[in-house]
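A student in our group prepared the protein record below, which I am reviewing. Thanks in advance; the entry in question is below.
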Amino acid sequence: MVLEVKRLSRIFDNQNGVKNVSFYANEGETIGLIGKSGSGKSTILRTIAGLDKDYNGDIVIAGDKINGPHPEVGVVFQEARLFPWLTVLENVTFTLKGDSKGNNELAKKLLKQVGLSGAENLYVKELSGGMAQRVSIARAVAAKPGLLLMDEPFSALDAFTKMQLQDLMLDIWQEEKVTTVIVTHDIDEALYLCDRIILLSGKPGEVEREFVIDGPRPRDRASEELASMKKKILQTLQIEAVRV
């Protein structure tokens, strides 16, 4: 087991946050966290990342009970958060230690995986939003994290770029076998990418239900199975499908 969250509670003055949340992620799994705004999805990710230490409960990563940043954890945020004074290649290798030649070769391999071969010497100002997020993903994977956290990484992108990056992540997961927890508001995205979905509801958010998505990937986005599961998720959230 790569990650175990046990009875996590973090409640703010406005009652946003989470209450008594427990779930786990096995090696190579992709776990989705979905729910309405204010249900605490990003709060959970921040605590796992060690960016918020003021919580109750336990977070265990690779067997270590933690209360702060863990070297095995990588994060991809909603915004790319690249260094504008560095090139694409330098952004990817920024946190890597050791042989610079080896680091550059690894970065070039990952940039090829994310469709940016030949863009190594570009600067952030020369990148589109989709390209910048591809660099951010390559940078996170370059550190070979045991656990990758993704906080709505595609929400700022147009629909076609979003689908391209979703397929890109499937390719990377297949190649690198990275255990991932992804926060998203997009039910279709969660159904397409994840092995299991943790559905949060209420304020503060609690685990309402877990959905298991069987079958190999890539999945048919228009399949009856995914449509049926989406309906169940919407019903659990008390949202009419016609409104989505």
Observations:
- The beta strands are 3-11, 17-25, 30-35, 56-61, 64-65, 73-76, 147-151, 179-183, 196-201, 206-212.
- The CA atoms of residues 87 and 122 lie 5 Å apart.
- Residues 159-176 form the longest helix (18 residues).
- Residues 84-144 form one domain.
